[in-house]
Fold:
Amino acid sequence: MPSTPLLELRNVSCSVEPGQPLFHDVNLSVNEGDILVLQGRSGCGKSTLLKCIAHLVLHDGETRYRGSTPQKQGIPSYRTRVLYVPQRPSLLPGTPRDFLKSISSLSAHKAASKTKPEAAAARAIERALEISSAWAIEGELWEREWSNLSGGEAQRIVLAVAVALNTAEVLLLDEPTSALDAESSSMVEKYLVNEIHSDSMLKALVWITHSEEQGRRVGTRFIQLCAGGCTEDPTPPV
Ligand SMILES: Nc1ncnc2c1ncn2[C@@H]1O[C@H](COP(=O)(O)OP(=O)(O)OP(=O)(O)O)[C@@H](O)[C@H]1O
Structure:
């Protein structure tokens, strides 16, 4: 008997304006070990699709995570398991360290974890510093106001937060290296690909990129989104 997919989308449709569907009837399964590269023309709805999967925008259709609906699991808990990582942080107050501390305590609480929120926060901060230092982010940047970080620094820190929380089985990555130079991009790509095969929580990635080269480097499956839904290419687009 085939095993239950990690994540399954059934007839997911979304309209940003009433009566004007951006895309409709997206059907997709994500399995452990998958790195799904999501591509399509600018404005076709890739970010919106990731937000539908994370239950951040209203949509039609059904999402199943390990066979059950996010509603059954509880949406806040589901969002810690299937985590949307934005391309850049919206205007956040304070420093990345403050942010990680509050979000990790909250995640421990929402995930109904047995770990005490303070212990979860301390572990997440330690891990985030380790990850970000592998991406050439110095520790002192965690103490700097978000508004005083460069686009590339903020992008790597947001990504390090998502990985360090270690609650997600699926990360929904919205152009995660769009603000990075080739060398920094390569460090992030290698780390994320390795993470899927490590003993961490992370089991799969859905990765939006406009770079076909990057898609070929990281992807194991290749999805094209268009108004009519999505199609899977058997090989990376050339
Ligand atoms: N809240 C909103 N209200 C109105 N229109 C929206 C809203 N959010 C997104 N859109 C529109 O929906 C369309 C799809 O946006 P989305 O960001 O999902 O596209 P995308 O494929 O990720 O684009 P890109 O590749 O340029 O990042 C765009 O035309 C965008 O302007």
